């Protein structure tokens, strides 16, 4: 199986640099005091479409040959990847066809439609998402871009950690949340290439702990009826992301729902930035003492900021 390497992430960065935001790295003196560590937050909540997903979608769309791109692209996604793929397709001037579960957050439906994608709604099960997408792909001839288990998506996601490390330099730990593992596997590849001595640690909601179970049992465990406020972290690892995570990641920690909400609130209050619950999961792992951060320099990828302001958890 052909797995991405750091060289592929470097090539992806060169390809997408004209289209993405080089997002800022922020720190907070008061959060550092609370945790007794130096935290550096890579603000992908300020990326185009409000999430790191734009990096992978952009790399995937602009890697396609003219022949592969001519009928457009398609995917199934409940939100950030859908919006990212829709915008990347619009930038390349090709159509995007998105299958979305009908219970996706309203803000995400509006965003995807706003970027000009054609949306097909389906019942909110993985089986329905996949079968509906198959139909759409056959009808349109569009190229499927999987949300995370896709070579060029992983390479694009890895550029966020690459930027973080190039800007901050030496870090003891680099953290990312984990759902399907696209961000985590890209983050791990960049970190281990640039900072071989650093630990890569993922955080996951206890109510959606399939990556945690997969990692420690070393067998891929599906995500079965996950329950968490972190709606970006509901999916299972994939055939590409899982082996990279097994090889390159040092630890996966799980956190409580209360911990996620508390961490999200601290970032809103102390840093004055909007993040979605999924982004708060790594900080929650530090606050709940699942990750030993005291006295260390820790980089954290804040994955996104697309949150329904009418349904805040605090």
Automatic annotation (TrEMBL):
Transmembrane segments: none
Cofactor(s) in the UniProt record: Ca(2+); pyridoxal 5'-phosphate; Mg(2+); Mn(2+)
Family, as annotated: Belongs to the serine/threonine dehydratase family.
Pfam families linked to this entry: PALP
PROSITE patterns, per the entry: DEHYDRATASE_SER_THR (PS00165)
Molecular function in Gene Ontology: ATP binding; L-serine ammonia-lyase activity; magnesium ion binding; pyridoxal phosphate binding; serine racemase activity; threonine racemase activity
Stated name of the protein: Threonine dehydratase, catabolic
Domain called Tryptophan synthase beta chain-like PALP: residue spans: 17-304
GO biological process, one term: D-serine biosynthetic process
UniProt KW keywords: Lyase, Magnesium, Pyridoxal phosphate
